[in-house]
Amino acid sequence: MTILKRLLKRPLTSADLHRLTRQNLMKPPLPKEMYEAAAGLIGKSGLSLLDYWRKAFSMQLDEIAARKTWQGQRARLLELFFAEQGWCDIFASAKDIEAPVWRHLVSEVEPFAAIPKEHWKGLLSQKYIIALLSVACLEELAAKIHAFNSAKKLELRLHSEYYREILELDLQTNTMVHQMVGHDDEGAFELGGLKDEVINPLIADQYKLLDLMAEQIANSQIDIVSVKEKIDAFDVRKRELVGVFLANVPKSP
Fold it and tell me: Does residue 28 have a cis peptide bond before it, meaning omega lies within 30 degrees of 0?
């Protein structure tokens, strides 16, 4: 019946989706060392990180099933994919950087908001493992249900790569500001203000383009010509604005 629904593009039930992901729920698709580490991480609730992921992923499957049409389920699956891939992108961009530099990315997200910053790196690693699992399972599910081809996978990769490019600009400039804190607080304040004035409006526009890409990928296909034109225009603007920003960064003695 599930095969027939897929062929006829009819919405699947929660039971259908759980059947399609049963194997991954039983044996999460992680490298052996990461799997063993995740199984050994026990939270205050008594759940291991893997059991926590199983519970969260099961809820995501229910969210997909709640959409009443095949297209709606496809769109919701991809929305969830983007959210989880986003955590992978944040981890890749921030894992070697001090938490104060990337606090704006997580400070209003539970449970980051509830714990001291010195524990954020460990929590980010856990979020990464959970996201990595969900991304792998959602992508496999999309391939089974929606027959995602190489072109669609390239669109997903383009979205991820562009998000990392935005994060790189944001975190590199934040790092320059943060490095001044403690020995030139006034200079750090001024440079931070310049980032707010010069760099952050560009980043905001880049995020709008990222959202447009996600919308197009989820509901149809990416308009690659239009998107490339916008990316190229932003690249020109970025070179100019970064030049202005760097001109105001104090030279190392």
Answer: no
